[in-house]
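In the previous chapter we treated chains in isolation. Here, by contrast, the input contains two separate entities that must be folded as one system, with a combined length of 466 residues.
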Amino acid sequence: MPTADGRALTEILGAFVPIGKGRDWDEVMGMNARTYLVNKENPPRAIRLVDNKQKTKDVLEAVGVPVPPTIEVLRDRRDLADLDWDNLPDSWELKPNMGRQGAGLVNIAERDDSGDGTGWRTGSGRPLSRSELVAHMRRVLDGEFSSGEVEQDWVLLEKLIVPHETLAGMVPQGLPDLRMICYRSEPLLAMIRLPTTASDGRANLHQGALGAAVDLGSGKVTRALFKGEEVSEHPDTGQNLIGVEVPYWNETLDSASRCSDATGLGYLGVDVVIDEDLGPLVLEVNARPGLQVQNVTGVGLATRLRGIDGQHWSSPV
Amino acid sequence: MLVAGLIVEPLLRPLKMPRVARLAVILGLVAGALLALGQFGPDPSASRNWTAAFPVVVATIVIEQFWGSWEQEGFRQALVGALWTTLAAIAAAPLLVSKPITWLAEHPPIYPFVLVAVGVGLSVLIGLYRGLRLSEFIRFRPALSKGKS
């Protein structure tokens, strides 16, 4: 049976293929180890909780973790029919409560006075009539953008996040966010995900966003990775990335470290945005965080985990 | 089959195996149940009919995964994933209806059950492996650089 850290496998493979012979693969955590860790540390009840954005916000707020302010929660079509459109702020964000990876999300940046005067404009300037928004909200309520086997969902209307100028200046468009990987209350690794033109303004590394490693001690960017290559500047804005200090870093670390106790997850990814007015806000807590952060930071999660509690991933099953 | 699957699934949970490994174990057990049905059941052709369901199962999975993948990873990735799944299924389909396999299904002495048992055992062992997957030796190359954060 191969050792759990894959060392025996790398030694055997290293003799035949260029996989990075002599490198310390023991540092890296793969999907198998992550799945084991998720199953071991994250009870199903806690996973169900964080799949529900509004309930997650409730438990986080209860322990003093800042979250995006809720404007309205629409639980069914009756709530939608009763929505007071005139009293909505000029900018807001629409989210499916159980949505994942930004599906069904709409950013409303301003009212649109043209036409009958009841329309809105999105962050990218696209006009949306009230009836188009109502139709979209109905699809959200029907669970069309929701994860799992959800048949019905809620519509969340939240304050539109305005990114802090330090981060906003780095990107051509979109909302940069911070991904912190935590083991219980201990942050292990952190990166900023910066939208690019290629990612169409989304902070999703798989869609072409840029990842920048953040040093946990200082909050400064130490390295950046774009499409698998190390870069020092944002490819669209030309902004230098290395050495940039994330604003409100200590508050951000503090918020991330309190998410484990609040949600019951032992291994988690915490997504934080830095709002111009409100500072760090926890956007989402993820029970199955991805492993790409290791490539961005150049640091393996297994190393960090061992450093926290002596957890040794090479121990036999 | 359903009952066997429903009984086994919770028994696998304490092993904390990945989803694919759990599916492999359940698939092995379902295949064993189909073999038993073919040998001991009233209709010996029942074990052959499962190959007819193969394209339906693959098509359903491709369709179901495609939309989710498009939303999460973009259209190109979704299309590439769907194409590879379809190609793998097309490559596997002739195997499933090949003479040796159908012969095994139609003339099951005791050893196909041994085969299924070995397959299930191997799936459990592979499912307990917590090291890196082969593709991850490529994927995580940038993680091995010495820059610390």
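Helices of chain B lie at 2-12, 19-40, 46-73, 75-96, 99-106, 111-127, 136-139. The radius of gyration of chain B is 19 Å. Compare these points with the single-chain example from earlier in the chapter.
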